[in-house]
Write the structure tokens for this entry.
Amino acid sequence: MNRRFYAPFARIDSSEQAQTMRGYAVWAFILWSGVSALNAVAISSGAVAGADSEVAMLKMVQAMFALGMAALCRFKPNPVWCGIGVAWMCFELSSALVDLLVGASAQRTAYGTVSAIVIPIVLLMCGIAHAGALRAANWLIRKG
């Protein structure tokens, strides 16, 4: 089977498939870095009401941290990085959903109106990708 994409929760049959799936963590971190950087730009440009420059700086630091994690996943593969990705995405997703569920206005949060819908979807996609990468990394360790 020569495919470039495998479903994150698909049965792992080969080392090639596991190597490909382990790379999902890199792409998930890069995607989240891009979203964080876009949020920082939106906040600093004044597109998000009620957010200050500290929030924009924190979002940019978050974007740089995500890029650093992507580099670690790429050049020093380890299930720990995938586990950190799963935990981070779960934390971010729960934080974003709690903001929306308690009735926080989208303009008052660090996201903005359109992003309040897009960001949870991106977080869910990143979390699923990290879970698939974690499964693949553990399979590679077991199979040696």
User: Anything to note?
Assistant: The mean pLDDT is 83. The chain has five helices and no strands. The first helix runs from residue 15 to 22. The two ends are 21 Å apart (CA to CA).
